[in-house]
Amino acid sequence: MTTTTDAPAAARKEALRNTLLATVDLLKRRRASDIAEDDIDAYVALNWLEWNGGGLRLTTTGDNVCKQLTSRLG
Hints:
Elements: H1 6-28, H2 37-45, E1 49-52, E2 55-58, H3 60-73
Antiparallel strand pairs: 1-2
């Protein structure tokens, strides 16, 4: 059962999913400072990104989400 409080969370997760590939591109270009702090916190909470030695990196889960997104585009 979906409640009205679940809708904003689901919408936020979908928005993050839609920007994940661009976020990963920023990380690859060493431009993490261009990623909003709230987005970083949300990606970490979703286990799509993790802190590693003061930097951010894609987790296995995040990599799988990226692969799903890439397969949808191709």
